[in-house]
Amino acid sequence: MTDGxxxxxxxPSKHLPDRVHAIARAGIGSxxxxxxxxxxxxxxxxxxxxxRRRDAWFGALGRLVxxxxxxxxxxxxxxxSENELFLSAAxxxxxxxxxxxxxxxxxxxxxxxxxxxxxxxxxxxxxxxFLGFVDELSPEHFxxxxxxxxxxxxxxxxxxxxxxxxxxxxxxxxxAAGLPVGGDVLAIVLxxxxxxxxxxxxxxxGMVSESGLWDPWATDLGRLLLGFVExx
Length: 232
Description:
Elements: H1 19-29, H2 34-71, H3 84-98, H4 103-117, H5 124-136, H6 139-149, H7 151-157, E1 167-168, H8 170-175, H9 183-195, E2 208-209, H10 220-229
Antiparallel strand pairs: 1-2
């Protein structure tokens, strides 16, 4: 994008002249053997992977729009060209999509765009900040956030027997929830959710009554984010 020009440039490709690419080639080529391998990686593998991810992502977006058109009679795909919030979110989501191989994260991005493609009352700042959370966080964060939002519903949806615990820390219930993360990974996830004010993991410690064991420990912001990224 040039000064005074609001148009988007082409996607990078091995056919597109690029000053940074040329400089990198010159530097890599000066290193024998390892440099030659790195040059092949830089010239062939990475551009090809980028093109593959781009094509897959835009194909998924096309299917998403078709699906919305089929499910909602009042939805007009042509109206998206005038929906500035959707366009901004689509550009940002596409940037994020190019940088991940995780299908779960791509699904989260598509769910966000689906929300914004349909009539909504989502504030522009909130929508784009929530997309930022999808970029910063991992699918594991959202799984744990889903549990934190509704521990009782989690056990019911997973057909899990509720632990026979009369009193104790909420962590005892969480440990029986079959969360797909544990150990150091869970510790990182809990820390991140707390730092982003999406949940209050400190509620997992401390003795509480039986009814208190099942209290949600996601914040209002966390619940809003979860609703934004969930499929509907």
